[in-house]
Amino acid sequence: MSKAASIAGLIAALLAGGAASATEERGAVTNLPIPRFVSLKAGETNVRRGPSLTHRIDWVYKRRGMPLEVTAEYGHWRRVRDVDGAGGWVHYSLISGVRTVLVEDDMLELHSRPGDNMPVEAKLAVGVIAKLGDCTVDWCEISAGGYEGWAHKAALWGVDAEETRD
């Protein structure tokens, strides 16, 4: 296929409403979307300056379940960034596809159903790691410490603003 034909195909896809699929970046190793959210499997994870064991360890994560965003792939390594924007390389065996979120608002209310007028089931402190469930446009169902409920998506880190989940 010629370069002109390839560009014409891309333009046709964009005009037909395929903008999201035409521009979505995929990982060269996994073919999964980049960026994407994952969580830490291990209770202690080294974050390295580069994608190999010979690269220096810049710091160590010590919270199992911590949500991270994968921003690149190289062999068995994933470049990640955390809620503070700090990044580095982590071996793929230390991360999981299980989705978690980090509570960013103190005393975040968990409602029985999506809606500010719904009963409050619990309140979560800032920094709590919660398992992510379903998400609507503005709300996500989360669970932590034996409690579950719906929280404002904007108060959570580890889920995209446009993301919906069933």
UniProtKB/TrEMBL annotation:
User: Which key words tag this protein in UniProt?
Assistant: Signal
Q: What is the annotated signal peptide range for this record?
A: 1-22
Is Signal found in the keyword set?
yes
Protein name from the UniProt record: SH3-like domain-containing protein
Q: Which organism is it from?
A: Salipiger thiooxidans
